[in-house]
Write a structure and sequence with these properties.
By secondary structure, the protein is mainly alpha-helical. The chain contains ten helices and no strands. Helix 2 packs antiparallel against helix 3 (31-54), helix 2 runs parallel beside helix 9 (161-194) and helix 4 (56-62) crosses helix 8 (139-148). It is globular, with a radius of gyration of 19 Å. The two termini are 29 Å apart.
Length: 222
């Protein structure tokens, strides 16, 4: 199991859609927002592990129609996120309702109201759901789960293969949280330096939108 955990750390460090997603969102909205998304991504990994255990992932991977539908859903969601990012000019993320009440209105020309179009105000719940949807609509995550977890199962172990896959999936969640959490913290530092620069905030949002569009196209480059 230790060998798998080390391998999971290496995999999480490798550039990919999920860590690029965390980087873009943390740099745009801050480290707290990044951790909300990471929790969503990790929840998605647990769901993927569950689907793997019951055999659903193998069925999806074997069905060209189901796989294509997931590709289309994932690409459409990423294009939607890109559209929302391009709309935002500058702003902050509100991570709970209480903070939203205390959060002052942005100055004219520097952002939109939390309820208006193009706002960058996002609740922790929305960010968490964004991470879940990002993971579950990524067909590459299904292929990765099939190619990474089952080969690590030891048939001579006293534990059943299903239990082993759950343990391995949990290890991957921990490894992902450690690596992605570090990415979120580092990107959050960048965001702090940009707080007083509307232009820099706008550029970060455009960077985030460009990342989403790139990831939408990359979904079909299997």
């Amino acid at each position: 199991m230790l060998e798998f955990f080390v391998a999971a750390i290496v995999v999480a460090l490798a550039p990919g859609p999920d860590n690029l997603f965390v980087l873009a969102q943390s740099a745009t909205h801050g480290a707290k927002a990044g951790f909300c998304i990471i929790c969503g991504l990790c929840t998605g990994i647990l769901v993927q592990t569950g689907l793997l255990v019951v055999g659903v992932s193998a069925l999806i991977a074997a069905s060209p129609v189901a796989f294509f539908v997931i590709q289309c859903l994932g690409a459409a969601y990423l294009v939607y996120l890109a559209y929302k990012s391009f709309q935002v000019r500058a702003g902050t993320v509100v991570l709970d309702a209480t903070a939203a009440e205390r959060h002052p209105e942005p100055r004219r020309g520097e952002g939109s109201s939390p309820e208006g179009p193009g706002s960058s105000s996002l609740s922790a719940r929305r960010l968490y759901l964004r991470g879940i949807i990002m993971n579950l609509t990524n067909p590459k995550a299904i292929l990765f789960a099939l190619s990474f977890i089952p080969p690590a199962v030891k048939m001579d172990s006293p534990l059943s293969p299903s239990v082993q896959m759950v343990i391995l999936g949990s290890e991957f969640v921990v490894a992902t949280f450690i690596v992605f959490g570090t990415v979120a913290l580092l990107a959050g530092v960048v965001k702090k330096f940009m707080l007083n620069s509307p232009k820099a905030n706008r550029n970060l949002n455009w960077f985030s939108g460009a990342v989403f569009l790139f990831m939408a196209v990359a979904l079909f480059a299997l």
